[in-house]
Design goal:
mainly alpha, 2 domains, two-stranded antiparallel ribbon, 15 helices, 2 strands, 78% helix, globular, disordered N terminus
């Protein structure tokens, strides 16, 4: 299960300019490869199946269906990812691998149930109010459920550092999608948009099945301890809130612009702003490599310093604890600066390529005017996410919740204000919200650096906590002798 972290460790370990460039390119390609395969498959189908010949309303219905499948599958999966990651990390540390399948099954049931709470009412509304064919609605819902399972299983494979297998499964699934779309449209003579949607749903289900089979091949034993997973959700509820707020903040600026005069309503159910949504997609892809670069560098560098500090706390001298703490926080600052430096180069290169080549393939106008501000916002956003990961390291759940809340609220208020500005400033809400979240997280890290000893040594309890009536304060009875 050697993953991208090991590969990047070998690349960056040579410490040359060439290997740094190779490492940047490798991490970028491996990170966005799944999304690139989906986009590539959609482009191939649209080009060769005559998507442009379809009526405008039908094309927009298909586009909005795919857009909603992606956005809300990510959003409904977000409350579970952090807690399940925490549970998986503890299991791997304890080497009780038979507890992984109970975690997988419980998380999958919760995820599907939570997703259905949003998906089913929307599909009913789309069918009854939007008068969309029920077969089309059901196919879109199946694609939504399949993608929920895909993203959910990706969590476990990412923890196993199996990024290559994820990319390989997406390539298989999208290859099958393209072939099936040709079969449905050219041979069976289905409508173009429904043939593409059905092929896409089958492709997502294929990816989900491949990921499930790989997880079962890794973890064969099942301990049957399901209650422990629910205990983690009760104990680590701040992780649920933080990850949900973070993911909601990723899209809340889109939701704000969906309420403006720029919005377009499809079949009285789907709402979108095509230019803003496309600019958001481009900006996110421009900076998404930051997450895998950060994770790989944490594996290579920071984790060792954190481990040394933990060992000093357990059995070291006071001087050892102080030295390892200073070395750990010094490296933390260096990693944040290094991430900003590397990602700035990647962002700048991709930004220039987009500004040069996208107008030649039909992307321009308002989309490219909105794109620069959003690109800057997502650059700060992924730096903020790196700080949240560091807060997780120190179990600062209060700080992580405050960061997610400030980011989400700041983005919401900033986006509402941005709707009254010129289009070049439409993305300023995300930029401001990300910066606010970054500052909050940075201040929490500085506070943690100054108060880490109190946080580590003074938060324990000598007696186990329990609920019940308070015992009597009387210690003994005093009797006087005659």
């Amino acid at each position: 299960m050697a993953g991208i972290g090991v590969k990047l460790n070998n690349i960056y370990g040579k410490r040359t300019l060439t290997t740094n460039i190779i490492g940047m390119g490798y991490s970028t390609v491996m990170t966005i490869a799944p999304m690139l395969t989906v986009i590539g498959a959609l482009c191939i189908m649209e080009h060769f199946l005559g998507f442009d010949s379809v009526g405008y309303a039908t094309r927009e219905l298909f586009s909005c269906t795919v857009l909603y499948i992606f956005i809300f599958s990510l959003l409904t999966a977000s409350p579970f990812n952090s807690v399940l990651s925490k549970y998986m990390s503890d299991i791997i540390y304890e080497e009780t691998f038979e507890d992984i399948l109970p975690c997988y099954y419980v998380g999958m049931i919760l995820n599907i149930t939570f997703s259905a709470l949003f998906g089913v009412p929307f599909c009913i509304h789309e069918y009854l109010v939007g008068n969309v064919d029920i077969i089309y609605v059901f196919t879109g819902y199946c694609g939504f459920v399949a993608l929920v399972l895909v993203f959910y299983s990706m969590l476990y494979l990412s923890i196993c550092k199996d990024y290559k297998k994820i990319s390989f499964f997406f390539m298989i699934g999208m290859t099958v999608t393209v072939l099936l779309s040709f079969l449905f449209v050219k041979v069976i003579h289905m409508s173009i948009t429904y043939g593409m949607l059905l092929a896409l749903a089958i492709g997502f289900w294929l990816i989900a099945c491949l990921e499930f089979a790989l997880i079962r091949s890794y973890f064969r034993e099942n301990s049957g301890r399901y209650r422990r997973v629910f205990h983690y959700f009760r104990e680590y509820w701040p992780l649920v809130l933080t990850n949900f707020l973070y993911t909601l903040g990723l899209y809340i600026h889109n939701f704000v612009f969906w309420t403006t005069d720029l919005h377009m309503v499809i079949v009285r159910s789907f709402v979108c702003v095509t230019t803003y949504d496309m600019a958001t997609c481009l900006a996110m892809f421009t900076n998404i490599s930051a997450s895998v670069i950060f994770i790989s560098r944490v594996e290579m560098n920071f984790h060792e310093r954190y481990k040394a500090y933990s060992e000093a706390v357990i059995g070291g001298r006071g001087a050892d604890i102080e030295i390892t703490k200073k070395r750990m926080f010094r490296l933390l600052a260096e990693e944040l600066l290094s991430l900003a430096r590397i990602q700035f180069i990647i962002t700048l290169v991709i930004f220039l390529l987009c500004m040069i080549f996208l107008p030649q393939v039909g992307f321009g106008g308002m989309t490219l005017r909105i794109y620069p501000c959003l690109a800057a916002g997502y650059f700060i956003l992924f730096l903020m996410y790196a700080e949240i990961i560091f807060l997780y390291y120190f179990d600062d759940f209060k700080g992580s919740v405050l960061t997610g809340l400030s980011f989400c609220i700041g983005t919401l208020i900033g986006s509402i204000i941005a709707t009254h500005l010129s289009d070049i400033w439409y993305g300023i809400g995300l930029t401001v919200g990300s910066f606010i979240g970054f500052v909050v997280a940075y201040r929490r890290l500085r506070w943690m650096e100054k108060n880490l000893d109190i946080h580590i040594f003074c938060n324990g309890h000598l007696l186990q906590k329990s609920k019940g009536s308070c015992p009597s304060p009387k210690v003994f009875d005093r009797y006087e002798q005659d």
